[in-house]
Design a protein that fits this description.
Length: about 80
Amino acid sequence: LMSAHRGEVICKVTTAKALDANTSKELNGILEGFLQKGQKLHLQTEVDPSLVGGMTVTIGDKFIDMSLKSKIKHYTGILKSASI
């Protein structure tokens, strides 16, 4: 609650491998573009090798899944249903 009161927005980014400094800085800049004026981004990064590639982003109450794991799961489901 205190973070919200101060205008801080917590953003959790999970990637398949650790981000280097340049990529982290670029991602931080892009994510700040989604904030309203006066809000401050607090970026938290995690590594989850099971994502295979890509990333998942949780910012505020929004969740975006751009991981290869979810794409593989989606297309596998399509292929399974098409072969029946």
